[in-house]
Amino acid sequence: WAGPGEATTAACQTVAQALPRLVGAEVDRLWVLAFSLVDPDAVDVQHDVRLGCKRLRYLLDGFGPCLSVKPRRLLKPLRRCQRLLGELHDGEGQSLGLVELLSAHGKRLRRIMREAMDTDAATGRLAEIAHQAARACHDLPAEGLALYLAELASRRDVLRGELAELW
What pLDDT does 5 receive? Predict the structure, then answer.
């Protein structure tokens, strides 16, 4: 196997010889991205880390038998990381959709909920703020949506904690 930029010669490396370098490069790329995970607003980085986990996992799944050390202990955390990042991504999308849906119920409710989402008090206080905002707009169906938004914010905080613990 000849890697990128390597000349093809009669003495090409085997997959088993080239694989540690390929795995090392993927791990290094993922490790650099992972340092940006501490920023909860780095949604693009979270997506890139998820894709990096997927690339590394597929590489290890496909070529793991060629390695002298079996990668089983690394595959489980990679799957877990992908799952956590996927849930964070889905929750972010749902939250933005709910904010847009809630905005149809009045500018005042939208402003209050956007301010609540932008603060890191989005766990304990957000449910209270959502309740007050919906009452102020006299819109109880919106209150239910706002409370669901608060639950999503709480779930995202839990997922971020699990992700920090995993790394």
Answer: 58
